[in-house]
């Protein structure tokens, strides 16, 4: 009987030997992971930045308007610089992305024409068939700058 108990104990110990190194590897991996993580304050800052990036379209327009002002842009660039310098490039990149998305949603002045042909704008009636581009882009022009093209011969 004693031999049977001793044999079963030796079988149990031999069966446990392969498990022991695996447990040691798992605990070592766990300790390595914990040592590699950032501090809780950095993780909280990163989590807040990820939330700001994801929900950037919900941020009120007053904050976006301030971010689009000169003081807001200076503050944003300074925040990106300090985040990159003190927290690392990952947090700097997240800060820059959040700031740019905040600027992207800022209200812009509408009604400003991006191209000025240099001539006077004459009020022409735009009733009738719309151009193909106007139909595709759903544009409705209110004034036409020129309706005739003046060409001249090439001279040397």
Provide a descriptive summary of the structure in words:
The protein contains seven helices and no strands. The chain has a domain of 68 residues. Helix 3 packs parallel to helix 6, helix 4 crosses helix 5 and helix 5 runs antiparallel to helix 6. The longest helix is centred in the N-terminal third of the chain and has 18 residues. The model has no long low-confidence stretch (mean pLDDT 79). The protein is an all-alpha fold and 156 residues long. The chain is 62% helix and 0% strand. Keywords: Membrane, Transmembrane, Transmembrane helix.
Q: Can you tag this structure with a few keywords?
A:
156 residues; mainly alpha; elongated; transmembrane helix; transmembrane
Number of helices: 7
Sheet with most strands: none
Number of strands: 0
- Rg calc: 34 Å
Strand content: under 5%
Return residue spans where pLDDT drops below 50 for at least 5 consecutive residues: none
Global structural class: mainly alpha
Element string (H = helix, E = strand): HHHHHHH
Transmembrane segments: 43-59, 79-103
Keywords: Membrane, Transmembrane, Transmembrane helix
């Amino acid at each position: 009987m004693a031999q049977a108990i001793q044999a079963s104990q030796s079988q149990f110990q031999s069966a446990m030997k392969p498990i022991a190194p695996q447990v040691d590897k798992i605990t070592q991996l766990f300790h390595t992971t914990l040592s590699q993580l950032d501090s809780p304050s950095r993780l909280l800052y990163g989590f807040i930045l990820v939330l700001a990036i994801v929900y950037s379209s919900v941020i009120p327009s007053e904050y976006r308007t301030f971010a689009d002002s000169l003081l807001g842009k200076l503050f944003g660039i300074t925040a990106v610089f300090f985040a990159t310098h003190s927290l690392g490039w990952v947090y700097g990149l997240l800060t820059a992305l959040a700031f740019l998305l905040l600027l992207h949603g800022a209200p812009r002045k509408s009604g400003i024409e991006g191209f000025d042909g240099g001539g006077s704008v004459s009020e022409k009636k735009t009733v009738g068939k719309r151009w193909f581009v106007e139909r595709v882009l759903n544009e409705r022009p209110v004034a036409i700058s020129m309706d005739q093209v003046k060409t001249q011969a090439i001279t040397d």
